[in-house]
Amino acid sequence: MKVLPLFSLVTLCLLSLYSCAEKEAKKPQKPNFLFIMSDDHAYQAISAYSDHLIQTPNIDRLAKEGMLFRNASVTNSICAPSRATILTGKHTHINGKIDNHNPFDTTQVTFPQIFQKAGYQTAMFGKLHFGNNPKGVDEFMILPGQGHYINPDFITQKGDTTITGYVTDIITDMSLEWLDKKRDPNKPFFLMYLHKAPHRPWWPRVDKFKEYTQKTFPLPETLFDDYSNRGTAAKTAEMNLLYHMEYSHDSKIWPETIEEMGNVVPIVQNTQANIYNEFNRANEAQKQEYKPIIDAINEDFRQKWPSMTDKEKMTWKYQRYMQDYLGSISSVDDNVGRVLDYLDNNGLAENTIVVYTSDQGFYLGEHGWFDKRFIYDESFKNSLIDPLAQ
After folding, report:
1. Per-residue pLDDT tens for 330-355?
2. Which of 92, 146, 159, 260 is least enclosed, having the fewest CB within 10 Å?
3. What 3 state SS string does the chain have?
């Protein structure tokens, strides 16, 4: 079995770029590139790979029109290091970005710089997660750090700003505005369209939140894994749904509900984050839309939790996790469709190479886990859809 490291994506892009340069005398028009990356989008949550959890028709369209890589992998299953590898084409120990905290070596050459040098107009909108302004892009609007789902802040060349709305829609609006009004039609373009979703704490847009809290999803075969054939790491990893997924921050339980119930077990060590970190970013009108949905979740929790077995509690948390995680992905797919429709309707589809990927995989209840980091398939393998491979 051959495994394609995700940083080979850089090679694929550049090979295509150089190939076009060699043929310039015969065909002067270079292809455009649209690079779409989401955050923590598990391949299990793309219906082109598996349709047991969600339908993603717009991302699937890319798979049908191009190549679906089934054994692509990351070299470091954590956000910023994986992104550094994608941007530089170098392993972590070479590019220096070893974790989410140490700064990126800004002397490294990134592949947008190579596109820019080759005469491409370049832009980046969404989540970079580096703490550095991007190199090799003519225009950018990026989220600071992890960013927020509701009324997000953005770093721009003209200064920081806050935009009212839902982050997945806003990033798409920015990208479409650049394509429609700011792009030079006489130049080929390279656009990085980078989603925050579906990163933790998984806040769907109100309509998706309402829709997905009514859904029930099939349980993974290994949801109740006891790790009997595994070493210490698997047994002690702090990413178990029952023991480590936070009630408020993740499952959307009001702190007041937990306080009122008085004896919510198992006890989960809470960080400083809770539901209000995101909810309080909403304006009053947005709060009035979200609150009834969250109240219904809390009432269900209040009524059922005290009498549940541990397996039932694990299942409840899994369903809540999938409802929010997949609801967030549904908006990503809808917005990818908006961009693909724009390319079709404006005569750009035939000469635009579209790549869809994520910065790594994610556990969707397999082995009882959420999160990533471990070199199991769900974390190490990654979505990669690339028409370059046709």
Report:
1. 999 999 999 999 999 999 999 999 99
2. 159
3. CCCEECCHHHHHHHHHHHHHHHCCCCCCCCCEEEEEEECCCCHHHCCCCCCCCCCCHHHHHHHHHCCECCCEECCCCCHHHHHHHHHHCCCHHHHCCCCCCCCCCCCCCCHHHHHHHCCCEEEEEECCCCCCCCCCCCEEEECCCCCCCECCEEEECCCCEECCCEHHHHHHHHHHHHHHHHCCCCCCEEEEEECCCCCCCCCCCHHHHHHHCCCCCCCCCCCCCCCCCCCHHHHHCCCEHHHHCCCCCCCCCCHHHHHHHCCCCCCCCCCCCCCHHHHCCCCHHHHHHHHHHHHHHHHHHHHHHHHCCHHHHHHHHHHHHHHHHHHHHHHHHHHHHHHHHHHHHCCCHHHEEEEEEECCCCCCCHHHECCCCCCCHHHHECCEECHHHC
